[in-house]
Design a protein that fits this description.
Largest sheet: 6 strands, antiparallel, barrel
Helix content: under 10%
Number of strands: 14
CATH topology of the largest domain: Elongation Factor Tu (Ef-tu), domain 3
CATH class of the largest domain: Mainly Beta
Radius of gyration: 24 Å
Number of helices: 4
Order of helices and strands: EEEEHHEEHEEEHEEEEE
Strand content: 25-35%
CATH superfamily of the largest domain: Translation factors
Distance between the termini: 62 Å
CATH architecture of the largest domain: Beta Barrel
Structural class: mainly beta
Length: about 350
Protein backbone atom coordinates (compact mmCIF):
# COMPACT_ATOMS: atom_id res chain seq x y z
CA UNK A 1 0.00 0.00 0.00
CA UNK A 2 1.31 3.40 -0.89
CA UNK A 3 2.13 6.19 1.52
CA UNK A 4 2.16 9.95 1.33
CA UNK A 5 5.29 11.59 0.02
CA UNK A 6 7.52 12.58 2.94
CA UNK A 7 10.09 14.72 1.11
CA UNK A 8 10.07 17.71 -1.19
CA UNK A 9 12.70 19.96 -2.79
CA UNK A 10 13.69 22.87 -0.60
CA UNK A 11 12.05 26.20 -1.37
CA UNK A 12 14.12 29.31 -2.02
CA UNK A 13 17.84 29.78 -2.42
CA UNK A 14 20.12 29.74 0.60
CA UNK A 15 22.72 31.71 -1.34
CA UNK A 16 20.99 35.05 -0.76
CA UNK A 17 20.57 34.87 3.00
CA UNK A 18 19.87 36.93 5.01
CA UNK A 19 16.79 38.20 3.20
CA UNK A 20 16.81 41.58 4.89
CA UNK A 21 16.39 45.17 3.77
CA UNK A 22 19.38 46.82 2.13
CA UNK A 23 21.35 49.19 4.36
CA UNK A 24 21.28 52.00 1.79
CA UNK A 25 19.51 52.68 -1.48
CA UNK A 26 22.92 53.23 -3.12
CA UNK A 27 24.93 50.07 -2.43
CA UNK A 28 28.61 50.13 -1.57
CA UNK A 29 30.76 48.55 -4.27
CA UNK A 30 32.45 45.67 -2.47
CA UNK A 31 34.99 44.72 -5.14
CA UNK A 32 36.46 45.98 -8.39
CA UNK A 33 38.10 44.12 -11.28
CA UNK A 34 41.78 44.59 -12.07
CA UNK A 35 41.62 46.14 -15.55
CA UNK A 36 44.34 47.92 -17.49
CA UNK A 37 42.92 50.54 -19.87
CA UNK A 38 44.59 52.81 -22.39
CA UNK A 39 44.10 55.68 -19.94
CA UNK A 40 43.32 56.04 -16.25
CA UNK A 41 39.56 56.12 -15.67
CA UNK A 42 37.03 55.27 -12.93
CA UNK A 43 35.68 51.73 -13.04
CA UNK A 44 32.10 52.56 -12.02
CA UNK A 45 29.38 55.14 -12.54
CA UNK A 46 25.96 56.00 -11.11
CA UNK A 47 22.72 56.25 -13.07
CA UNK A 48 18.95 56.38 -12.59
CA UNK A 49 16.62 53.74 -14.01
CA UNK A 50 14.28 55.25 -16.60
CA UNK A 51 12.26 52.31 -17.87
CA UNK A 52 12.06 49.49 -20.39
CA UNK A 53 11.04 49.14 -23.99
CA UNK A 54 12.00 46.87 -26.88
CA UNK A 55 14.31 47.21 -29.83
CA UNK A 56 15.46 45.43 -32.97
CA UNK A 57 19.20 44.90 -33.28
CA UNK A 58 21.41 43.03 -35.69
CA UNK A 59 22.55 39.98 -33.74
CA UNK A 60 26.25 40.67 -32.98
CA UNK A 61 27.16 37.26 -31.46
CA UNK A 62 29.16 35.26 -34.03
CA UNK A 63 28.21 31.89 -32.51
CA UNK A 64 24.48 32.66 -32.52
CA UNK A 65 22.21 30.90 -35.07
CA UNK A 66 20.70 34.31 -35.89
CA UNK A 67 24.08 36.05 -36.33
CA UNK A 68 23.78 38.99 -38.73
CA UNK A 69 19.97 38.96 -38.65
CA UNK A 70 17.59 41.34 -36.94
CA UNK A 71 16.35 40.09 -33.57
CA UNK A 72 13.89 41.43 -31.00
CA UNK A 73 15.38 42.26 -27.58
CA UNK A 74 14.05 43.96 -24.44
CA UNK A 75 16.13 46.99 -23.45
CA UNK A 76 16.50 49.21 -20.37
CA UNK A 77 17.23 52.94 -20.44
CA UNK A 78 19.35 54.37 -17.59
CA UNK A 79 19.96 58.12 -17.34
CA UNK A 80 23.54 58.87 -16.33
CA UNK A 81 24.13 62.60 -15.73
CA UNK A 82 27.79 63.66 -15.38
CA UNK A 83 29.44 63.12 -12.00
CA UNK A 84 31.94 65.37 -10.24
CA UNK A 85 35.29 64.10 -9.00
CA UNK A 86 34.78 65.52 -5.52
CA UNK A 87 37.83 64.06 -3.85
CA UNK A 88 40.50 61.38 -3.64
CA UNK A 89 41.24 58.88 -0.88
CA UNK A 90 44.68 57.30 -0.33
CA UNK A 91 44.92 53.86 1.28
CA UNK A 92 47.76 52.16 3.12
CA UNK A 93 47.87 48.56 4.24
CA UNK A 94 48.61 46.91 7.55
CA UNK A 95 49.46 43.18 7.22
CA UNK A 96 47.43 42.40 10.34
CA UNK A 97 44.54 44.86 10.08
CA UNK A 98 44.17 45.30 6.33
CA UNK A 99 43.66 48.61 4.52
CA UNK A 100 43.34 51.95 6.25
CA UNK A 101 42.99 55.54 5.07
CA UNK A 102 46.21 57.54 4.87
CA UNK A 103 44.56 60.78 3.82
CA UNK A 104 41.96 62.57 1.71
CA UNK A 105 41.87 65.60 -0.53
CA UNK A 106 38.73 67.40 -1.70
CA UNK A 107 37.90 69.80 -4.48
CA UNK A 108 37.34 73.45 -3.65
CA UNK A 109 34.38 74.21 -1.42
CA UNK A 110 32.84 76.62 -3.95
CA UNK A 111 32.61 73.92 -6.64
CA UNK A 112 31.11 71.30 -4.35
CA UNK A 113 28.61 73.64 -2.71
CA UNK A 114 27.12 74.27 -6.16
CA UNK A 115 26.55 70.51 -6.33
CA UNK A 116 24.67 70.63 -2.98
CA UNK A 117 27.26 68.63 -1.06
CA UNK A 118 26.18 70.44 2.12
CA UNK A 119 22.89 68.57 1.89
CA UNK A 120 24.93 65.37 2.25
CA UNK A 121 27.77 66.49 4.56
CA UNK A 122 26.77 69.12 7.10
CA UNK A 123 29.34 71.80 7.97
CA UNK A 124 31.45 70.81 4.97
CA UNK A 125 34.73 72.70 5.27
CA UNK A 126 37.65 70.74 3.75
CA UNK A 127 41.25 71.99 3.77
CA UNK A 128 42.63 73.49 0.58
CA UNK A 129 44.03 71.19 -2.10
CA UNK A 130 47.60 72.37 -1.50
CA UNK A 131 47.30 71.85 2.25
CA UNK A 132 45.89 68.34 1.85
CA UNK A 133 48.50 67.48 -0.79
CA UNK A 134 51.26 68.59 1.56
CA UNK A 135 50.14 65.96 4.09
CA UNK A 136 49.46 63.18 1.59
CA UNK A 137 52.39 63.30 -0.83
CA UNK A 138 55.08 62.35 1.76
CA UNK A 139 52.99 59.23 2.52
CA UNK A 140 52.59 58.01 -1.07
CA UNK A 141 55.49 55.58 -0.65
CA UNK A 142 53.40 53.68 1.91
CA UNK A 143 50.20 53.84 -0.20
CA UNK A 144 48.78 50.77 -1.92
CA UNK A 145 45.81 52.37 -3.72
CA UNK A 146 44.14 55.68 -4.54
CA UNK A 147 40.41 55.87 -5.15
CA UNK A 148 38.08 58.54 -6.47
CA UNK A 149 35.13 60.03 -4.59
CA UNK A 150 32.46 60.69 -7.22
CA UNK A 151 29.56 63.03 -6.44
CA UNK A 152 26.31 62.66 -8.36
CA UNK A 153 24.43 65.68 -9.71
CA UNK A 154 20.77 64.56 -9.59
CA UNK A 155 19.34 67.92 -10.68
CA UNK A 156 20.79 67.27 -14.16
CA UNK A 157 18.59 64.18 -14.53
CA UNK A 158 15.24 64.92 -16.13
CA UNK A 159 13.07 62.50 -14.15
CA UNK A 160 14.58 62.90 -10.67
CA UNK A 161 13.43 65.67 -8.33
CA UNK A 162 16.05 64.85 -5.70
CA UNK A 163 18.51 67.59 -4.70
CA UNK A 164 20.68 65.68 -2.22
CA UNK A 165 23.59 64.06 -4.10
CA UNK A 166 25.13 60.62 -3.62
CA UNK A 167 28.82 60.09 -2.87
CA UNK A 168 30.38 56.93 -4.30
CA UNK A 169 33.92 55.62 -3.79
CA UNK A 170 35.25 54.18 -7.04
CA UNK A 171 38.51 52.43 -7.91
CA UNK A 172 40.58 53.38 -10.94
CA UNK A 173 42.00 51.27 -13.74
CA UNK A 174 45.40 49.68 -13.18
CA UNK A 175 48.25 52.18 -12.92
CA UNK A 176 51.03 53.12 -10.48
CA UNK A 177 49.84 54.76 -7.26
CA UNK A 178 51.62 58.02 -8.11
CA UNK A 179 49.97 58.14 -11.55
CA UNK A 180 46.52 57.62 -10.01
CA UNK A 181 47.16 60.36 -7.47
CA UNK A 182 48.36 62.83 -10.10
CA UNK A 183 45.35 62.07 -12.32
CA UNK A 184 42.81 62.62 -9.54
CA UNK A 185 44.56 65.70 -8.21
CA UNK A 186 44.44 67.30 -11.66
CA UNK A 187 40.77 66.33 -12.09
CA UNK A 188 39.43 67.49 -8.71
CA UNK A 189 36.23 69.47 -9.22
CA UNK A 190 35.84 68.49 -12.87
CA UNK A 191 33.13 66.36 -14.43
CA UNK A 192 33.41 62.82 -15.74
CA UNK A 193 30.87 61.49 -18.25
CA UNK A 194 29.54 58.02 -18.95
CA UNK A 195 31.08 58.08 -22.44
CA UNK A 196 34.53 58.45 -20.83
CA UNK A 197 34.10 55.06 -19.16
CA UNK A 198 31.78 52.75 -21.12
CA UNK A 199 31.26 52.13 -24.83
CA UNK A 200 28.72 50.13 -26.89
CA UNK A 201 29.41 46.44 -27.31
CA UNK A 202 31.04 45.88 -23.91
CA UNK A 203 29.69 44.09 -20.85
CA UNK A 204 29.02 45.76 -17.50
CA UNK A 205 27.68 44.74 -14.10
CA UNK A 206 24.67 46.46 -12.51
CA UNK A 207 24.47 46.77 -8.72
CA UNK A 208 21.29 48.01 -7.09
CA UNK A 209 18.42 47.45 -4.69
CA UNK A 210 15.42 45.44 -5.83
CA UNK A 211 11.81 46.54 -5.68
CA UNK A 212 10.51 46.32 -2.10
CA UNK A 213 7.47 44.14 -1.40
CA UNK A 214 7.21 44.40 2.37
CA UNK A 215 6.48 41.60 4.85
CA UNK A 216 5.23 38.50 3.02
CA UNK A 217 4.30 34.94 3.91
CA UNK A 218 6.03 31.74 2.88
CA UNK A 219 3.82 31.06 -0.17
CA UNK A 220 4.77 34.30 -1.90
CA UNK A 221 8.26 34.66 -0.37
CA UNK A 222 9.52 31.11 -1.03
CA UNK A 223 6.97 29.48 -3.33
CA UNK A 224 5.83 26.94 -0.71
CA UNK A 225 2.92 24.79 -1.85
CA UNK A 226 -0.36 25.76 -0.20
CA UNK A 227 -1.81 23.03 2.00
CA UNK A 228 -5.28 21.59 1.32
CA UNK A 229 -8.27 23.41 2.72
CA UNK A 230 -10.94 21.23 4.31
CA UNK A 231 -12.78 21.44 7.58
CA UNK A 232 -10.71 18.87 9.48
CA UNK A 233 -7.34 20.07 8.22
CA UNK A 234 -4.86 22.23 10.09
CA UNK A 235 -5.68 25.73 11.22
CA UNK A 236 -3.70 27.29 8.35
CA UNK A 237 -3.10 26.46 4.72
CA UNK A 238 -0.62 29.16 3.62
CA UNK A 239 2.16 27.98 5.92
CA UNK A 240 4.79 25.25 6.19
CA UNK A 241 3.67 21.93 7.58
CA UNK A 242 6.60 21.71 10.00
CA UNK A 243 9.23 24.29 10.97
CA UNK A 244 11.69 21.62 12.09
CA UNK A 245 12.29 18.54 14.18
CA UNK A 246 12.33 18.31 17.96
CA UNK A 247 15.48 20.43 18.11
CA UNK A 248 13.46 23.50 17.11
CA UNK A 249 12.97 25.63 14.03
CA UNK A 250 15.74 25.24 11.48
CA UNK A 251 17.30 28.29 9.82
CA UNK A 252 16.75 26.69 6.41
CA UNK A 253 13.00 26.37 6.92
CA UNK A 254 10.96 28.92 4.95
CA UNK A 255 9.38 31.51 7.21
CA UNK A 256 7.56 34.78 6.71
CA UNK A 257 9.57 37.99 6.57
CA UNK A 258 10.97 40.78 4.42
CA UNK A 259 10.63 40.32 0.65
CA UNK A 260 12.34 42.65 -1.76
CA UNK A 261 14.46 45.76 -1.22
CA UNK A 262 17.54 43.52 -1.27
CA UNK A 263 20.99 44.42 -2.58
CA UNK A 264 21.66 42.45 -5.74
CA UNK A 265 24.22 42.34 -8.57
CA UNK A 266 23.48 41.41 -12.17
CA UNK A 267 26.51 40.35 -14.16
CA UNK A 268 27.49 40.87 -17.78
CA UNK A 269 24.79 43.11 -19.22
CA UNK A 270 25.46 44.08 -22.85
CA UNK A 271 25.72 47.81 -23.59
CA UNK A 272 23.75 48.61 -26.74
CA UNK A 273 24.13 52.38 -26.79
CA UNK A 274 25.76 55.27 -24.93
CA UNK A 275 23.87 58.49 -25.68
CA UNK A 276 24.62 62.13 -25.01
CA UNK A 277 22.40 64.95 -23.73
CA UNK A 278 22.09 66.25 -27.30
CA UNK A 279 20.59 62.91 -28.42
CA UNK A 280 18.23 62.62 -25.44
CA UNK A 281 15.21 64.45 -27.00
CA UNK A 282 15.14 61.87 -29.81
CA UNK A 283 14.70 59.04 -27.27
CA UNK A 284 11.84 60.52 -25.24
CA UNK A 285 8.40 59.10 -26.06
CA UNK A 286 5.49 61.53 -26.47
CA UNK A 287 4.56 62.69 -22.97
CA UNK A 288 7.79 61.34 -21.47
CA UNK A 289 8.66 57.99 -19.91
CA UNK A 290 5.94 56.57 -17.70
CA UNK A 291 6.57 57.26 -13.99
CA UNK A 292 9.86 58.96 -14.85
CA UNK A 293 9.58 61.93 -17.15
CA UNK A 294 12.03 63.17 -19.77
CA UNK A 295 15.65 62.19 -20.28
CA UNK A 296 17.64 65.45 -20.30
CA UNK A 297 21.26 64.30 -19.92
CA UNK A 298 23.53 61.43 -20.96
CA UNK A 299 22.05 57.94 -20.94
CA UNK A 300 22.94 54.31 -21.55
CA UNK A 301 20.88 51.50 -23.07
CA UNK A 302 21.36 47.93 -21.80
CA UNK A 303 20.09 44.65 -23.18
CA UNK A 304 17.57 43.00 -20.86
CA UNK A 305 16.19 44.11 -17.52
CA UNK A 306 17.75 45.39 -14.31
CA UNK A 307 16.56 45.48 -10.72
CA UNK A 308 14.64 48.27 -9.01
CA UNK A 309 11.80 50.65 -9.62
CA UNK A 310 11.76 53.71 -11.85
CA UNK A 311 14.15 56.44 -10.65
CA UNK A 312 16.13 53.89 -8.61
CA UNK A 313 19.85 54.79 -8.43
CA UNK A 314 22.02 52.02 -9.90
CA UNK A 315 25.77 51.44 -9.91
CA UNK A 316 27.27 50.51 -13.30
CA UNK A 317 30.64 48.75 -12.96
CA UNK A 318 33.19 47.13 -15.23
CA UNK A 319 32.53 43.35 -15.34
CA UNK A 320 34.22 41.48 -12.53
CA UNK A 321 33.82 38.03 -14.13
CA UNK A 322 33.29 38.38 -17.90
CA UNK A 323 33.31 35.31 -20.15
CA UNK A 324 36.90 34.25 -20.83
CA UNK A 325 36.51 34.37 -24.61
CA UNK A 326 34.44 37.57 -24.80
CA UNK A 327 35.51 40.37 -27.11
CA UNK A 328 33.68 43.71 -27.58
CA UNK A 329 30.86 43.35 -30.10
CA UNK A 330 29.83 45.59 -32.98
CA UNK A 331 26.28 46.56 -31.99
CA UNK A 332 23.88 47.95 -34.59
CA UNK A 333 20.50 49.26 -33.41
CA UNK A 334 17.89 49.07 -36.13
CA UNK A 335 14.83 50.35 -34.26
CA UNK A 336 13.78 51.33 -30.71
CA UNK A 337 10.11 51.47 -29.82
CA UNK A 338 9.20 54.67 -27.96
Amino acid sequence: MGHRKKSAPRRGSLGVRPRKRAEDIVPRIRSFPQIALSKIAPLAFLGYKVGMTHAFIVDPVPTSPSYGKEIFVPVTFIETPPMIIAGLRVYGRNPELGRFVLGEAWASREVLEKANITRLIKNFDPPSIDEAAGRIEPLLEKAVDVRALLLSVPNLAGGVSQKKPFLVEVALSQAPVKAKYDYLKSMLGSQVRISDIFSPGMLIDVIGVTRGRGFQGVVKRFGVKELPRWHKHRKASRTVASRGSQVGALSTTPQAGQMGYHRRTEFNKLVLMVGSAEQAPSYNPPGGWKNYGLIRSDFIVLKGSVMGTKKRPLILRFPIRPPASFKPLQVKLSYIYL
